[in-house]
Amino acid sequence: MSSTSPVVGQDAAWREWLAAIASERMHHAWLLSGAKGVGKRAFARAAACELVRQPGSAIPDVSAHPDITILEHLPANDDEAKKKAEGKPYQTRRNITVDQVREMIRRLATKPTLGERRAIVIDPADDMEKGAVNALLKALEEPPAGTYFLLVTHQPGRLLPTIRSRCRILRFAPLEAAALDQIIRRDAPHADAAAREAAITAAQGSPGIALDFVEHDLGGLHALMMRILREGDARFHLRGALADEMGARPARDRQVAALELARSVLVQELRSAPRARQAKIIEAHEVLTRLSVQATTYNFDAGLLIMEIGGLLASAAMPREAAR
């Protein structure tokens, strides 16, 4: 059992998880909390495997182990389910449904199959329907013996206080530049030094954003976003350039990547902004967050979406007097 995390940059969280597994009174519910893209998804699956692994045995296959249940967004319809089965990109439902949670709870009536523990991963818990949240709360209040919940969350504030109060929080910090560079070199070996440096700067500690930056060649978008924040865009010409850089028919992945990049840019700006400007930055970030959630399930008009992104950045721009 190695103390080195299977997810780069999250050794502290992994050591905390291993210590909990080894303890005699392990907490039954965990909230995996941190910014989007820092590795919580992969960590939750690795943590579930470690939890159910029998002493001396190999790490199990997370997708095939009978004592690991993962609740995530289902395909939007039968056609999208076929695409998933074929390994193709597919659209998902907007939420994790109450039926998914109820089916999981029904399984809890039986004991774990291969050992004494089972893991329930909900990813992301932020996206559960209201009915699903209420159903989960009942399971958290009276958990069956040997059942452990891992709730992946990008925004803990979206969960009910009654859910949060029953969970132990496992925090995921943004990654240092060296760890981000390691991930980019591993997963995007074609990226040159300049691309890696730009991606690390834009990502603000998120390997997911860094890899999207390289994969979708977001350097041009990033430069324009920063200009809008610095200069504003009273005549809309920078938003027009942003739309041109985005492309006429960008893939959904590129649209989602652009949204995440805009959120990262705002987070970076917030750190140095005067108090009088922070409210506008936070408001713009909240709208971008909602759009990011919706973009995975809705077919947005790409042109309108990028203009919306540009408009939100312009609303949070530095006052013209300060920019001068």
UniProtKB/TrEMBL annotation:
GO cellular component, one term: DNA polymerase III complex
Provenance organism: Novosphingobium silvae
Entry superkingdom: Bacteria
GO-annotated biological processes: DNA-templated DNA replication
Database matches in InterPro entries: DNA_Rep/Repair_Clamp_Loader (IPR050238), P-loop_NTPase (IPR027417)
Protein name per Swiss-Prot or TrEMBL: AAA family ATPase
